[in-house]
Design goal:
Length: 549
Amino acid sequence: MMPPGPLSGLIPGQMMDRPLLVAPLMRFAGDYHGDTAVVTRSVEGPIHRTTYGETHRRVQKLANALKALGIKPGDRVATLAWNTWRHLELYYAVAGIGAICHTVNPRLPIEHMRLILAHATDRLVFYDTTFTELVAGLKNSVPCVEQFIPLCDAAHAPSDPRLGDVLAYEDLIAPHAETFDWPEFNENTAASLCYTSGTTGTPKGVLYSHRALVLHSYSMVSSSRMTVDDVILPVVPMFHVNAWGVPYAAPMVGAAQVFAGRAMDGQSLFELMDGEAVTCALGVPTLWMGLLTHMRSAGRKPKGLERVVIGGAAAPESMIEAFELEFGVEVNHAWGMTETTPLGVVNTLKPKFKALSQAERTKLKSKQGRAIFGVDLRIVDEHGNALPHDGVAAGHLQVRGPWIIQSYFKHDARALTADGWFDTGDIATLDGDGYMHITDRAKDVIKSGGEWISSVDLENAALGHPDVAMAAVIGIHHPRWTERPLLICVTKGAARPTLAEINDYLGRKVPKWWLPEAITFVESLPIGPTGKIQKVKLREQFKDYRFDA
């Protein structure tokens, strides 16, 4: 908690008061690491190569273009884009002029996207051409958006009549100067906006300040051991909590960046990593499974690959062992969330643990990790009482720090406990060495392939089927996707629809990757005293249920 008031006798320091802003990160990289590579497998297919020096010049052209379009400080500019050099340019140009870069997750249901764009009141949407169909479905239903701009040149601009005349990104920035006088403003000004996945209702916006992003970058650099010698590939999307902060942290140390575009299958990742000598890659377990399969097929790791950071879902011990024992690639587990910018903990071994057996090290590495400087952790019981850090007691995980959310975008109420902590919704243990291990979730969301599935939305959609009287959805462990949904139904009569019939119906209401992996029928569902389905009892009832890979 903050002290109740100023302390007498304090003497101010006599250092310069320079604001922590995002644009200087790219200016620094352009000035001092101007020849360092930024490589992308483009959406069109070919490998695109540029440098930090050229990126900074193009960022300035884009800043001039945005100003010419009338974008003002505080305006929101949205992206529907993969990891590319153009997306990187948008990160810096939009925030650099005092506007807000709003990265939209294209995997959300289109209804959620409409809500998000309208709630953010985005003025522009920049999109990769792979999302042309999606944009056509959004164009006339979000009045606040003045222009949809494809991230391409004129030759690749979509000609869909539903879009009308389009101005390609390259044509937008071409006439503008490659110098820009970056403004200075309060470091607590908003720079970036991400929305939660709407797993428990309407998505909520998390508004990151320049200060939070820069401080997070310092911590990302140190905890992930980024250096100028690294070639970093964030497999995690730039629409997923700012690619875990890599686009800001890598320029801070002059590390090269490699972007996979939309090609994130195992073979494509292997070839890109191998060709660019990637040293460090970050992503969710599902993507690493595909990479490991291809590595085994090739009989080797990509040349240069030294370490992978695994987050977004728990890393199986078998995955850790595969990387480390079969291929000599170090694994660092990590944990965070949209509300924590996202980095909260990283699993690095203390020196005293390096002498442990491989099995013991793997077990320790399967925990999410230790807090990084700037993030405080605690676990509490249902009454808010602090629990011991003994590795046994499990409680509600709460966090605080300079890059932890205080309140949601356009929500007046603080999102914190009375004494200033953010409750993550996870249940975890903390041991005496500071290692945090998530044992359960307080809410009933399902984690599949690094993305959340809303059990509530899926249940509500299933209830619209003519044969379904009651429905519940729980997550069941899946050997590839971490978890997949099991739909548990009470029918209205004797008819029992097949899984194919249910999924054909649900496929018109929810994203295809949300569809249940299996369906089972029961006579009744356990109902609690408040009229809610007791999913704890369902998880116990179906604890031995198994999905095949």
